[in-house]
From TrEMBL:
Pfam family, one: DUF4245
InterPro entries tied to this protein: DUF4245
Species: Nocardioides lentus
Protein name: DUF4245 domain-containing protein
Length: 164
C-alpha cells in the first residue's frame, strides 16, 4: 500500500513539472455571421465594417427578445485593450451603470465622425471612456479601456448597413 501511494505521488509530481500552465489567449470570433443572422431576423445590429490590422473581435452576444433585442460586440485592439459596443438592453443609465464605474462623469456632447451618428455624449470614469447615443430608437454605448483615440476610431468604423 505504501508503495502505491509513493508511486501515485511521484506520478502527480512528475505531471506537475511538465504541465503547461500558460495563459490561454482569448480566441477571435466571426461577428459577421451573427450580424447576418440578426439582419435576416429583422434586427439591425451596429457593427464595424472591418477591424484595423491586429484588432480582433473576441465576443459577440445577440439576445432576441419580444420587447427588445440586445446586441453586444467585444473587441481587443492590437495593444490588447478592450473596446465594446452595446445596443439595446435598457436605458442609457442602465448601460452606463452596467459598463462604467459609479464615478463616471458626463463630459458633454461631442462630435465624432461616424456613419451611424455624429453627436455622442462622452463619459469617462477612472479607467474607461464611453460614447452614448440613441440610434434608431435604441440606446447605444461604445466604450472601452483602450485609449480615447482607439475608441473614437472604432466608433467611426460602425455601421448599420446590410452585410449581404
Amino acid at each position: 500500500m505504501v508503495v502505491l501511494v509513493v508511486v501515485v505521488l511521484a506520478f502527480v509530481a512528475w505531471r506537475g513539472l511538465f504541465r503547461d500552465n500558460d495563459f490561454q489567449p482569448v480566441r477571435p470570433v466571426d461577428y459577421r455571421e451573427t450580424v447576418e443572422l440578426a439582419q435576416d431576423g429583422d434586427f439591425e445590429p451596429i457593427y464595424p465594417v472591418e477591424l484595423p490590422e491586429g484588432w480582433e473581435a473576441t465576443s459577440v452576444d445577440l439576445e432576441p427578445g419580444t420587447e427588445r433585442t440586445v446586441w453586444a460586440l467585444g473587441v481587443l485592439t492590437d495593444e490588447r485593450e478592450f473596446l465594446g459596443v452595446q445596443q439595446g438592453g435598457g436605458s442609457r443609465d442602465d448601460l452606463l451603470e452596467l459598463w462604467l464605474d459609479e464615478d463616471a462623469e458626463s463630459q458633454g456632447e461631442v462630435t465624432v465622425d461616424s456613419a451611424i451618428g455624429d453627436t455622442w455624449e462622452e463619459w469617462t470614469d477612472s479607467s474607461d471612456v464611453a460614447y452614448a447615443a440613441e440610434i434608431d430608437g435604441q440606446e447605444v454605448l461604445v466604450h472601452g479601456s483602450a485609449p480615447d483615440e482607439d475608441v473614437r476610431e472604432f466608433l467611426g468604423l460602425l455601421t448599420l448597413e446590410p452585410i449581404r
